[in-house]
Amino acid sequence: MSESNGSVLPSTPVNRQDQSSVKVMLFAKKCFYSYLSLLVNSKDDLALARILNVPDRGLGREAFTKLKHASQEKKMSIFLMATSFIRTVEHGGKGCAASLFDPLRVHVKELSSFINFIDKLGEIVGEIPDPRVAGGQILSTVKMHLMKGRSNGDPFYQAVEKVVQDLDLKIKNIIDSQHEVLTASTTGVSPTRPKLHSINHGTVYCGRDTIKVLLALLDEEAVSAPTQNKAELLYDDVNLNMVGITSVFTLFRSPAQSKESSPKPLRQRIQKPVDEKIIKVLCRKCYTHTDALK
């Protein structure tokens, strides 16, 4: 329902379709920012949760829960836990024998695919000195990755196309802005290096300028409102089922629930007891009215 000039108008199929498109666009945007965030900050568990299984790698809630528990036990971020496990399996060493009995062993192929893709993005940062070119290459690589197996008529496919155009323009604007500041400066002092503790060490030196641009892009997004409707942040969005995702809240919920009872959206879980209370009140009034007639 929507209000216009004091009157209440029913929601039309067109409005619902527009709302769904906006939500798919928002999700595509979050995917890109999550890949970029994980690229510069290996401790961003929330970013990893959003993209671990996007696109579908077979790393659903079960795999994420195992990773989460392993990272808590080792006291490291989830991404570093996954990276450490894959490196141990790939290169052998003292921990290789123990890894044969690791619960993550059944997900080696899928986790390796994910880690290798993040490594690929890191190589772009480290090998291409021009941040404008590197940024475009990163966006293009993530774009092709997310579009894998989807047709150009897919809502998510179209959303990814639009997000890439928007982010590419933002990156260019940030680079131009940084260049203007650098040119106007007369101090001769080089720009501050990014903090090493928060950035993947493999890319911090070679891709210093690109890292600075990505951090600026992430900072811009961090201070912007994620959605006009704050209530959307509190429940699983059933309209995004077409993308084949699992809610971040669901991923972090522990212990894992059985497959037979998938969690319902928070809005539905709240609405059910409310409806039950209304029914009880109506029944009570009905009984009272009946007794009065007698």
Automatic annotation (TrEMBL):
Keywords: Cytoplasm, DNA damage, DNA repair, DNA-binding, Nucleus. One of its GO terms (molecular function) is DNA binding. One of its GO terms (cellular component) is nucleus. One of its GO terms (biological process) is DNA repair. It is found in: Cytoplasm; Nucleus. InterPro entries: P-loop_NTPase (IPR027417), PARPBP (IPR038932). Belongs to the PARI family. This is PCNA-interacting partner. It comes from Bambusicola thoracicus.
